[in-house]
């Protein structure tokens, strides 16, 4: 909803796709915006798919690599919580780094029984690990368009919101899906949530005020 706060009432109607990929959920909304008014044409997404899933995939990959490196030297009967936390923290760092760089290199010293984990992972490997997620995103976009009875070229603007939209592969598949249409990455996700909540609260207040006036009559 915050997207329309600064829209001029004399602007032409627009059909907008809001692509919101946060830490915990992935949400899609198709809105018709006309003279400051919003009409929700369809919604979609996955409440169980968020940016944290990329971290989990990387954590599993790093643990597998570590086991492979020292399988003849260490018995991995009990993986400590401390080890998991270090891998999870490093995985988030890798994800963010690979959004800017093509390769990530580092060493996790004394990860387990004084053994180090040498990390070398490329962006292409990251994309390979998450290939099914990217395919899932495409399927969900198709379903959301279908529910709105719209074709791809009927979407006028695509608003990208949420930290996971910084992942280059996500930018690429969305842009490719919509035949090269430019993506709008200028919306601040925190301002969007705050402004949306303010509008919702204001709407509730107005409705209550109207009801009170009717009851007095």
TrEMBL record:
Q: Which Pfam families match?
A: HSP70 (PF00012)
The GO terms this record gives for MF are:
ATP binding; ATP-dependent protein folding chaperone
Annotated keywords: ATP-binding, Nucleotide-binding
Which superkingdom?
A: Eukaryota
Protein name as it appears in the record: Hsp70 protein
Organism encoding this protein: Neocallimastix californiae
Q: Taxonomically, what lineage is the organism?
A: Eukaryota, Fungi, Fungi incertae sedis, Chytridiomycota, Chytridiomycota incertae sedis
């Amino acid at each position: 909803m915050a997207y329309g706060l600064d829209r001029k009432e004399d602007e032409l109607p627009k059909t907008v796709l809001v692509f919101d990929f946060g830490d915990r959920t992935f949400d899609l909304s198709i809105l018709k915006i006309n003279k400051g008014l919003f009409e929700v044409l369809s919604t979609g997404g996955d409440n169980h798919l968020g940016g944290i899933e990329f971290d989990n995939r990387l954590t599993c990959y790093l643990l597998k690599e570590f086991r492979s490196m020292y399988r003849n030297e260490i018995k991995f009967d009990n993986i400590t919580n401390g080890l998991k936390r270090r891998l999870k923290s490093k995985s988030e760092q890798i994800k963010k780094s690979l959004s800017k760089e093509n390769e990530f290199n580092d060493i996790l010293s004394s990860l387990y029984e004084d053994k180090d984990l040498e990390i070398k992972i490329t962006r292409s490997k990251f994309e390979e690990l998450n290939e099914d997620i990217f395919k899932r995103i495409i399927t969900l976009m198709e379903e959301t368009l279908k529910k709105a009875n719209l074709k791809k070229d009927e979407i006028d603007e695509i608003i990208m919101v949420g930290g996971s939209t910084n992942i280059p592969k996500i930018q690429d598949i969305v842009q490719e899906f919509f035949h090269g249409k430019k993506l709008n990455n200028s919306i601040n996700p925190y301002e969007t949530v705050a402004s949306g909540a303010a509008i919702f609260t204001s709407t509730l207040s107005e409705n209550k005020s109207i009801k009170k006036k009717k009851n007095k009559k």
